[in-house]
Amino acid sequence: MIGVWGTLKVLAAISGMVFMGYCVYFDKQRRSDPDFKRKLHERRNQRSFASVKSPSSVPVNEKDVEMYFMTQIHKGEGLITNGDIEGGVEHLINAILVCSQPGKLLQVLQNTLPVEIFTMMLIKMHAYEAAERSSPVLVEEEATSALE
């Protein structure tokens, strides 16, 4: 005779095997979905570029936009001065995104920033722009090859 504990152990083993079988089946179905890779790239893209805010995430009030713009400019300048070039460039890009005249701001930044930093900013802006249209793998390759 197996006993009560033996029966429970057998039932637990069978339940575990059924659960594992379900997990394997579900994972196979999920991976065989033709849109799986596209959706995965989109999720990774959203996470990787979450640090740069889109203009839609900025308050609509004109005074708030101006305050946000000035804050981003000051943070960017401060970080670049302290040696955090990448962080400063991201804040400057945020300022450019909400600027009413981005062309003029780019001209001012071109005249005031060192060439290497301005070039890095343009490359990142191009990468963010391209990320909206393509997969994050291509954007990372473009940014990496452009920096080399």
TrEMBL record:
Record-linked Gene3D superfamilies: Mitochondrial outer membrane translocase complex, subunit Tom20 domain (1.20.960.10)
Keywords from the UniProt entry: Membrane, Mitochondrion, Mitochondrion outer membrane, Protein transport, Transmembrane, Transmembrane helix, Transport
- Where does the record say this protein resides? Mitochondrion outer membrane
Q: Does the UniProt entry include the keyword Metal-binding?
A: no
Domain of life per record = Eukaryota
According to its record, how does it sit in the membrane? Answer: Single-pass membrane protein
- GO BP of this protein: intracellular protein transport; protein import into mitochondrial matrix; protein targeting; tRNA import into mitochondrion
Q: What is this protein called?
A: Mitochondrial import receptor subunit TOM20 homolog
What species does this protein belong to?
A: Drosophila yakuba
